[in-house]
Amino acid sequence: MTFEVFEKLEIKVQQAIDTITLLQMEIEDLKEKNKCLNKEMEWLKTNQETLVSENEQLREEQNIWQDRLRCLLNKMDEV
């Protein structure tokens, strides 16, 4: 009877060890995915900042061209 109890206990301990090992592997996988996602997030953030800057520059250029066009149209109206 005692032997059976020890066998059952051994099986449960082995199952616990297996579960812990699988969970540790899953944690490592999740850490790696998190690392990759953090890198991607940094890249996207940098890309966004670049695009925002470029957008601001293009808006400024557009305003300059609009001003020039208005001036030309005003000159044409004067003629």
From TrEMBL:
Taxonomic lineage from the root: Bacteria, Pseudomonadati, Pseudomonadota, Gammaproteobacteria, Enterobacterales
UniProt GO BP: division septum assembly; FtsZ-dependent cytokinesis
Keywords attached to this entry: Cell cycle, Cell division, Coiled coil, Cytoplasm, Septation
InterPro entries in alphabetical order: Cell_div_ZapB (IPR009252)
Annotated source species: secondary endosymbiont of Heteropsylla cubana
Family that this chain belongs to: Belongs to the ZapB family.
GO CC annotation, single: cytoplasm
Pfam families, A to Z: ZapB
Subunit and partners: Homodimer. The ends of the coiled-coil dimer bind to each other, forming polymers. Interacts with FtsZ.
Localization in the cell: Cytoplasm
UniProt feature coiled coil, ranges: 6-75
The keyword Cell cycle belongs to this UniProt entry's keyword annotation: yes
Keyword Cell cycle part of the UniProt annotation: yes
Protein name, entry field: Cell division protein ZapB
Reported function: Non-essential, abundant cell division factor that is required for proper Z-ring formation. It is recruited early to the divisome by direct interaction with FtsZ, stimulating Z-ring assembly and thereby promoting cell division earlier in the cell cycle. Its recruitment to the Z-ring requires functional FtsA or ZipA.
